[in-house]
Amino acid sequence: MTGVLPPLMEHAAEDLSELSAAQAADVVVDTLLRGVGTPQAR
Q1: What domain of life is recorded for the organism (predicted)?
Q2: How many angstroms separate the CA atoms of 20 and 8, rounded?
Q3: pLDDT in tens, 1-42
């Protein structure tokens, strides 16, 4: 995850320019945790 997080943060800052840095960071972390986390029950 340490190799993935910095590039994701950089892309979020560029692609989500309408968000503050903190909001973009929240989006990245939430997306990363949902993508890496335990699958949700269906």
Answers
A1: Bacteria
A2: 15
A3: 778 788 888 888 888 889 888 888 888 888 877 876 556 565
Q: Are 28 and 9 in contact (CB under 8 A)?
A: yes
Place of tokens 């939430």: 30
DSSP letters along 1-42, please?
A: -TTTHHHHHHHHHHHTTTS-HHHHHHHHHHHHHHHHSPPPP-
The radius of gyration of the chain's CA atoms, rounded to the nearest angstrom, is 11
Enter the tokens of residue 4: 């993935």
Alpha-carbon span 26 to 32, nearest angstrom: 10
Contact predicate 20/12, CB 8 Å: no
